[in-house]
Amino acid sequence: MSRGEIAVEATGPTIVAGEILVEIMASERGFGFLEPLALTGPYPSGAPAIFIDQVAKLGGGAGIIACVGRDDFGTVNLERLRRDGVDVSAVSVSDRYPTGSAFVRYRPDGGRDFVYNIADSAAGRISLTAEARRLADGAGHLHVMGSALSIAGLKEIVAYAVKAVRARGGSTSFDPNVRKELIDLDGAHFAALVDDADLLLPSGEELLAAAGVEDERQAVAALIARGVGEIVLKRGADGSTRFGADGSRTDCPGFLVEEIDPTGAGDCFGATYLTCRRKGIEPGKALLYANAAGALNVTRLGPMEGLAGFEALDRFIAGADRAK
């Protein structure tokens, strides 16, 4: 396999490493958590967990390296992941630290305020265990989420997994997905993940930040020149665009839906596009499925509650209206 190509599933499963959380949401819109509020949850969450669960829902091989607490929140997550077919053998269970959490409140304009507990929870205690090494040694693709970059143990895990995956002829992808509440990044490490990616999955201005320029066309050219194999730009309700290393461009309009909860839509989109490509589906159709997966996910409350397999996506595509 040439550098810049997505490895087919036969090479091994897709794996991720990072935070597993529960998400608890304010029932009413407003700003922050400065007064008592009605809350709903807990919902299984964490960007890597959402991503890999969607991979499994689509029938792709899937595994995650993570850590949860020995508590109800950890059980909620592990039961969901196991039920959907994710290999959780490399998920450690901590007797000392609780499962990570994210409290979310939506603002009137649709923006969100988060209160995270990751660094001082089980989610912040991931490490390169024997089980993690075993999972990485058999993997065909490694996906890295920017939300996990502030976790201390991630760098060692990624370094090992990249070497193991490449040795098997596998591939990598990177979603910058950095939350402002979690910014604590090693710039050199971030740049190395961008440069190593066979597939880059930015949203909006993350494309410009990854390239260090202020123009979309220039950013794409700069990233391709640095060795990125393909770039898929998530444009939210406006759909998505795929840029190939050969200079090709494919645009795919979004779907018109009533948005209930956008959390997890980008993770669901990325997992669907990647899994389609690993199954040999051409880029245009992969974008269509990815747009459908992201759109369907926002129609449900809870970041994993709208995840769907190919049959459900086909039904959604057949009946949904498209953006112009």
Tell me the major beta sheet.
9 strands, mixed
**Poorly predicted spans:** none
Please compute the radius of gyration using only Cα atoms.
18 Å
Number of strands: 15
Order of helices and strands: EEEHEHEEEHEHEHEHHEEEEHHHE
Overall structural class, as computed from helix and strand content, comes to: alpha/beta
Strand content: 15-25%
Ends: how far apart? 37 Å
Mean pLDDT: 91
Total helices: the number is 10
Protein described:
The protein is of the alpha/beta class and 324 residues long. The protein is 34% helix and 22% strand. It has a nine-stranded mixed sheet, with helices on both faces. Strands 3-2-6-7 form a four-stranded mixed sheet. It has a two-stranded antiparallel ribbon with strand order 14-15. Helix 1 runs parallel beside helix 2 (72-84), helix 3 runs parallel beside helix 4 (154-167) and helix 8 (265-278) runs antiparallel to helix 9. It is globular, with a radius of gyration of 18 Å.
